[in-house]
Automatic annotation (TrEMBL):
Compartment(s): Cell membrane; Cell projection, Lamellipodium; Cytoplasm; Nucleus
Coiled-coil region list: 320-541
Domain PH: 214-310
CDD domains: PH_SWAP-70 (cd13273)
GO MF: calcium ion binding; DNA binding
Organism name: Lepisosteus oculatus
SMART domains in the record: PH
Protein task: Phosphatidylinositol 3,4,5-trisphosphate-dependent guanine nucleotide exchange factor (GEF) which, independently of RAS, transduces signals from tyrosine kinase receptors to RAC. It also mediates signaling of membrane ruffling. Regulates the actin cytoskeleton as an effector or adapter protein in response to agonist stimulated phosphatidylinositol (3,4)-bisphosphate production and cell protrusion.
UniProt GO cellular component terms: cytoplasm; lamellipodium; nucleus; plasma membrane
Chain ranges of the EF-hand domain: 11-46
Protein name: Switch-associated protein 70
Pfam families: EF-hand_SWAP70_N, PH
Amino acid sequence: VKRFKMGLREELLKSIWHAFTALDVDRSGKVSKSQLKVLSHNLCTVMKIPHDPVALEEHFKDDDEGPVSNQGYMPYLNKFILDKVQDNFDRLDFNKMCWTLCARKNLIKNYLLITDEDAFKIWCIFNFLSEDKYPLVIVTEEIEYFLRKLTDAMGGSWIEEKFEDYKTQLNSKEQCLTAWELIDLIGTGQFSKGMDRQTLSMGITEVFQELIMDVLKQGYMMKKGHKRKNWTERWFLLRPSAISYYVSEDLTEKKGDITLDGNCCVESLPDKEGKKCLFIIKCTDKSFEISASDKKKKQEWIQAIQTCISLLKLGLPAPHKEARQKRKELRQKLLAEQEELEQRMKDLQTANENKQRELETMRKKLAEAAADAAEEERRRLQTQRELQDRYRMDLEREKMVRQQMEEEVAQKSSEVEQYLQRVHELEDMYRRLEEALEDERQARQDEEAVRKLQARLLEEEAMKRAELEQIHLQQQRAISQTEAEKQELENERLAKEQALEAAMQQLEQLESERRGALEQYEEVMKKLEKAANKTRSWKDKVAQHEGLIRLIQPGSKGPQLITNWGAAAFTEAELSLREKSWQEKKNRTTEAQ
């Protein structure tokens, strides 16, 4: 019941909206109170509602600003009229009253091929098929539905291409029509070419009766009487809840109604009493036997009546109303899906734009990073070339210094050998002289101490030179390492350069010590020279007084070891020990690398 009242309210509001809009002469959206009084009185009269003339004044007593808008009139309309309405009035009279108010202003009759009555019927059909939002319009789908119905009612054939062309024109505008545009479309005969006015009027009437008057089927059939049992031809009208039958199709004299409900049924009957195509409608209180004109009509009527009974059992509205509701729900669903799709597209577009901006930012950052990396690489290569040049120059200087040192060492070694050879000759010549030998023995002891000191210094020098070579190799490895270790290698290089400088200082210190040893050696040589002079003087004395004597020769007559420091500086055992110690140090240095 609630659903029925809501549907009735929406149907009534559409007609009232047309009437209210027609009263808005200057199109300001407002109507004067005097006109609203007349409209309210007419509505109450047509819908059989007690009218209270004071209610309107009472309702708007606080609003003296003048005309009332549609939104301002709606509370009064709902409270004093629509809330009180019952389904006990003639809707056709209600629609005609509203039509009379709005047709004067909007209907142009000059070029229309239809009558005012037909225009009224199209207006009612528009209200039935229009959307439930204001201002009222009829969408393309409902226009096509109405035109198809009208074409079928006129017995014509539907031309899809023609409507598609017209729909294309609509799409370029607003894809919908107002009530007056729909009346112009039908009244100009755009979709009824080849049909006369009477056929068009009959088609409009048939569609009007089906959609507005709820006439699901109509036509002549024979009905069997209940009292005299005679067969009489009647004009039958099938509505969702009843079948009315009249004397003729002009509906001037109604003969009765067959009330339908969920308990009724319709059945086919065999031919009898000279009548064919029989069927019977069984109701709660009585039954009705009817004869159709042919089998097709009989089957159509049985099917239509059975459909009405099934809808009554299920509590559903008429088929065309249910179909209209399904179409609206489908449109709303499609609209919601379209809006959702558009929203998704907007979201996707927004997300895409954000991604594009992020990608652009990333591209800029990558380009900047690439430029920075190229600049950093250029700087690194330049620094590496500078370091390589510097290391190469250092190595060349170091090589030159080493060569000079080696030349000096070789020169000093040759000098030492010459000095030692002279000492050996002196020792051979003056062996026999005891004092000279004692002095010479003491001098040799001093010489051996100096030699040991020099050997130690040379050994330390060799070790330092090995360390220098090791540092040099490490510096060469450090040059080939990656940029990520450059700073660490630079620090190590600085540390190694400091170590190299320290080693160079130690080498210089050793060189100075070696020079000191050479100086000591020179002092020893001077002592030897003094001893030699002394022995020479003794030799002269001995030659003068006693003649030649055989000199005492110390040591073995066998072959003696010759080193840089003279004959018999080291014994064989001492030399092997020194070689073993030097080899062990070399192995430890190699393992440490």
